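User: Sequence in, structure out. Go.
Assistant: Echoing your sequence, followed by the C-alpha cells.
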Amino acid sequence: MNPVIETDHVKKVYGETTAVDELTLRVREGTLFGLLGPNGSGKTTTIRVLTGQVRPDSGTAKVLGIDVASDPVGVRRQVGIIPEQETPPSFLTATEYLKFVGAIRKIPDIGERMAWWFDFLEFGDKKDVLCKDLSRGTRQKLMFAQAFIHRPVLALIDEPLINFDPIMQRVVKDFLVDYVRQGNTIFLSTHLLGVAEEICQEFAILHRGKLLHAGQVAEITATGRHLDDFFLGLVRKGE
C-alpha cells in the first residue's frame, strides 16, 4: 500500500519547548492509524503540521503526495480534519455551518448529506440551534460531520471520542472501522489506549516530541500483552 502520510525528520519548536523532535513516520493507505502519547507529547502539533496549520521548523511532511509546507490549502482541500477543540462558528446554526462547508467544498448534494449526518449522529433536533448554544457533545458531532461530509480518502482527527457518551462512542468507532474497510485512511491521535487497541491497525507512540515506537497493534496483542502495558513500559523508559 502507498503511504498517504510521510514525514522526514520533522521538528517544531515553541520557545524553549521542542513539541515535535525529528519525527519520521509513514502511514499506509487503507489504515486506521493511532498516534498515541501522554498529554504534551506532540500529538496535536503533529496533526497541525500535517494539516498545514503550522509550519515545521525543519524536515518535510507530505500528505497524499502533497508537500504540506508548500501547499497547505491543497492538503486541507483533500482531507477531513477534526481539531483538538471543537470550534464551529458560534454565530451560525448547525445547518448553516454544514451548508457553508458544502459551499466551500463544492458538494452538490449537501442537503442529502446533511440529513444523513443529522440522522446518523442523532442531532437533527439541534440543526437550527446556534453553535454557541450547543452542548460540547453536540458540537463534537457537528465537527465530526463536517470532517466526513465530503467523503475524504484521508481524515486526521484529534481525540475524536472525548466528548461522546458511551453509546455515541460505539457508533463513531464502528463508523471509523467501516470507513477504513471501504479503502479510506484514518489518522487519529488519542490518549485512550483501550480505544486504540480496539480499533487501530497500526500505531506510533510519541513522548516529549520523540517517536518511541511505530508498528502494528496485532504484534503487541499476539504476545498476550495489552497496548497500555506496552505503552507505559516505553514511556517510563523514556523519562
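User: And one key feature?
Assistant: The longest helix spans residues 166-181.
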